[in-house]
Amino acid sequence: xxxxxNGILSMLCFIVVTxxxxxxxxxxxxxxxxxxxxxxxxxxxxxxxxxxGCWLTNQLPIQMWSAxxxxxxxxxxxxxxxYFRIINRHLRQRAGVYNLNDSLGSxxxxxxxxxxxxxxxxxxxxxxxxxxxxT
Length: 135
Prior knowledge:
Elements: H1 2-28, H2 31-34, H3 37-56, H4 61-95, H5 104-126
Helix pairs in contact: 1-4, 3-4, 3-5
């Protein structure tokens, strides 16, 4: 019962923290300014690692459900970020306001660079010296 109670408490805490962020960003139409692309990318990566770890080690169902919930909220936040990034960029262009750092491509480059560096770091620390077995 303790594991299930802790799992439910974890999900409730996550919902209490995330729903106001989603609501406020949607209401103020500024998710692209309120959150950074790098933050969202690494948050998603952490939750993907958590979910895959739960799946690979056959964890309790409550852990699998919480990992799935975290991924659903990650997708919602990233979708909101990309949507408002495109909409706000379009509105700024119509108003004649241009920003050199306003391209979605530059944000995606930062995200991909971060994933690449993280992949190298994880790869270097995951395999043993012979390169064939996990440590």
